[in-house]
Amino acid sequence: MVIVMNPKATQADIERVVARIEKAGLKTHLSTGEECTIVGVIGDKKKIAGLEMNVMPGVDKTLRITEKYKLVSRNFQAEDTIIDVDGVKIGGKHFAVMAGPCAVESIEQLNEAARAVKKAGAQFLRGGAFKPRTSPYDFQGLHEEGLKLLRDAADREGLKVVTEVVDHDDIELIEKYADILQVGARNMHNFELLKALGHAHKPVMLKRGLSATITEWLNAAEYIMSGGNTNVIFCERGIRTYETYTRNTLDLSAVAIIKELSHLPIVVDPSHGTGKRSLVAPMSKAAVAAGADGLIIEVHPHPEVALSDGDQSLTPEDFETLMGDIKGLTKFVGKVL
Fold first, then answer.
1. What is the spatial distance between Cα 267 and Cα 96, in angstroms, rounded to a whole number?
2. Are the C-beta atoms of residues 287 and 295 closer than 8 Å to each other?
3. Cα–Cα distance between 283 and 252 in angstroms, integer?
4. pLDDT tens-digit series, residues 175-187
5. Mean pLDDT value across residues 135-162
6. Which residues pair with 100 in a beta bridge?
7. Which one, of 123, 122, 93, lies nearest residue 293 by Cα?
8. Beta-strand pair 180-183/83-85
9. Taking the mean position of all CA atoms in its chain, how far away is CA 71?
10. Where are the alpha helices (DSSP H) in the chain?
11. For helices 277-290 and 253-261, what crossing angle results, to 10°?
């Protein structure tokens, strides 16, 4: 249930509504916008059904949310969520770019990549220290040593760190080094991991599953938010279809759909979305035009020798050219990079 307060409702009116809800054994979530305050009601459906809130002073109307996802829904919170990562904002009018190699390979590789993406205008350094790969014989990452290299390289260049968490036992370790915890496509349905991330202290970037529907993706985010972590970012990275020319089918309609259904920000990964270096730039520009709140792009100083995803990684020179184009596009759509 969502309770919409009258624009003229007093703080005392809001507090009485909250007190009544909590007395019934339910939880509340307040969203204060420019025009009114919305009180979200969370808990047992039978208890919610027994609430009669329209008669209370200051209440404008009550709305029943029929979707299984509540906290994620725009009905629950009308205003866009803006996530502040130590001064770097994602969402609303703010546009973020995350860039770097697919995997952390060496200190030389990472330092070179960090310098390049910072120079071009990125705010985040991305890189995998724990790599869930299709084959057990592929490079699996440097683990904690890779996390240390990420943090050192990012700090040296004044960047934030985004990296993947694969196992809930690693969350505490990765939080020591990362600013955003990424859930990869393979783990979108790993509900135990999502529940654990609900108690994490860092924002979570939730990639769409390989064949996940929008509703399944929204409910995956609900798992995280229901645990108390409200700093969730969606990431569209393409889904598996019958098409084989590209690595995945990048579903840019998901950007507009998420904006319509949820208040949470959404970024786009054109690297995994296409798997082809030549398609990263046009799909990045299309993502900006579609209303995305950011991009996560693979950049490697020497893609020809990359241990992971070299075919879809931009060179530093190509990334700098793309960033020049993106800066113009973000202004055009009313966002700030």
1. 8
2. yes
3. 9
4. 999 999 999 999 9
5. 85
6. 298
7. 93
8. unpaired
9. 15
10. 11-23, 45-49, 107-120, 144-157, 171-175, 191-197, 214-226, 253-261, 270-274, 277-290, 316-332
11. 30
Start-to-end CA distance of the chain, whole Å, equals: 36
Give tens-digit pLDDT for 271-298. Answer: 999 999 999 999 999 999 999 999 999 9
Tell me the C-alpha distance between 147 and 324, whole Å: 29
| Confidence at residue 135, expressed as pLDDT on a 0 to 100 scale | 64
Task: Look at residue 42 in the predicted model and tell me its pLDDT.
Answer: 84
Q: Tell me whether strands 96-100 and 294-298 are parallel, antiparallel or unpaired.
A: parallel
* 324 Cβ contact list (under 8 Å, min separation 6): none
Residues in the chain: 337
What does the block give as tokens for 215? Answer: 């509703």
Backbone angles phi, psi at 214, to 5 degrees: -60, -45
Please report the domains of the chain, with CATH numbers, ordered by start residue. Answer: 2-63 (3.30.70.1140), 83-332 (3.20.20.70)
Residue with tokens 């939730």: 206
Inter-CA distances, 45 with 42, 64, 216, 272, Å: 8, 11, 21, 40
Name residues whose C-beta falls within 8 Å of residue 313's C-beta, 6 or more positions apart in sequence: 101, 102, 271, 277, 298, 299, 300, 303, 306
d(CA 295, CA 274): 14
Please give the mean pLDDT across all residues of the chain: 93
pLDDT of residue 31: 78
- Residues 19/38, Cβ–Cβ less than 8 Å: no
Whose tokens are 């808990």? That residue is 43
Residue with tokens 């934030």: 160
Do 3 and 28 meet the contact criterion of CB atoms below 8 Å apart?
A: no
Count helices and strands in the chain by DSSP H and E runs: 11, 14
Residues 268, 96: contact at Cβ < 8 Å? no
CA–CA separation, 203 vs 254, rounded Å? 21
